[in-house]
TrEMBL record:
Transmembrane regions listed in the UniProt entry: none
All copies of domain Lipid/polyisoprenoid-binding YceI-like, residue ranges: 44-218
Alphabetized PROSITE patterns for the sequence: PROKAR_LIPOPROTEIN
UniProt xrefs under PANTHER family: PROTEIN YCEI
Source organism (scientific name): Mesonia hippocampi
Entry protein name: Polyisoprenoid-binding protein YceI
C-alpha cells in the first residue's frame, strides 16, 4: 500500500509542470505591464467558454509526462481591424482536469494540483485561496504575438504568446502555438531542481510547462 501511494504521489507531481517539446516556444517573461485600453471604434467579443480550450502538459526531468485541460470561466476581447486592442480572460482553476489517467490515480493527481489536501495546499495552485487565474492583454503584434499579464496564485508576470487571430461572420478565433513558461516565476516551486538542490533526480520536475489554447468569442 505504501508503494502504491508513493507511485500515485509521483504521478501527481508529474502533471503540474512540463518539459517543453523541441518545437514549443519558450515565451518571453517580464514584469507586469499596464493593461491595454480599447478605442471607441473597437468591437467587443465575448468569449464562448463552451467552445474554448486551454491545454497543459507536464513532466519530470527524467521520464514521464501527463496532460489535461483547464476551463475558461469568462472573457472578452476588443478588436479593431484585426488587432486585439484589449482583453481579459478568467481561468477556472477548480476545473483542472488530468485527461491521461483515470480512477483513483486521476483523483489523487487533480487533488494534489488543486491543493485540496491541506498538507499539499501550497505545492501547486492552491485553488482554495486562488480559485481563478487571469490573462489581461497588454499588446498585440498582429500575426505574431499576443502580450499580456498572466496572474497565478496572486503573482503577475507579463508573457508573450505566439498566436493567430481571425475574424469571420461575427466570430473571433485565437489559436496559440504550444508555448512554455517557467512555473518558478510564479513561485510554484514544488520539487524544482533549480530551487531545491537536494531533490532526488528521479523526483525533479521541470520548471517549464507547456500551454496551448484555442479561444472562440462572439460579438
Amino acid at each position: 500500500m505504501k508503494k502504491l501511494l508513493m507511485n500515485v504521489f509521483v504521478v501527481a507531481v508529474l502533471t503540474a509542470t512540463t518539459v517543453a517539446c523541441k518545437n514549443d516556444k519558450k515565451t518571453t517573461t517580464s514584469d507586469a505591464q499596464e493593461t491595454a485600453k480599447p478605442t471607441v471604434e473597437a468591437v467587443a467579443y465575448k468569449v464562448s467558454t463552451d467552445n474554448s480550450t486551454l491545454k497543459w502538459e507536464g513532466a519530470k526531468v527524467i521520464g514521464g509526462k501527463h496532460f489535461g485541460t483547464v476551463n475558461l470561466k469568462e472573457g472578452v476581447f476588443s478588436v479593431k481591424e484585426g488587432l486585439i486592442e484589449s482583453g481579459k480572460v478568467v481561468i477556472d482553476m477548480n476545473s483542472i482536469n488530468a485527461t491521461d489517467v483515470e480512477g483513483e490515480e486521476k483523483e489523487m493527481l487533480e487533488g494534489h494540483l488543486k491543493g485540496t489536501n491541506d498538507k499539499q495546499k501550497s505545492d501547486f495552485f492552491d485553488v482554495k485561496d486562488f480559485p481563478t487565474a487571469t490573462f489581461e492583454v497588454t499588446g498585440h503584434e498582429k500575426g505574431k504575438a499576443l502580450k499580456g499579464n498572466l496572474t497565478l496564485k496572486g503573482i503577475t508576470n507579463n508573457i508573450e504568446v505566439p498566436v493567430k487571430v481571425s475574424e469571420e461572420n461575427g466570430m473571433l478565433t485565437l489559436v496559440s502555438e504550444p508555448f512554455t513558461i517557467d512555473r518558478t516565476d510564479w513561485k510554484i516551486n514544488f520539487n524544482s531542481g533549480s530551487v531545491f538542490k537536494d531533490v532526488a533526480k528521479d523526483r525533479v520536475i521541470s520548471d517549464n510547462f507547456t500551454l496551448q489554447f484555442t479561444v472562440e468569442a462572439k460579438k
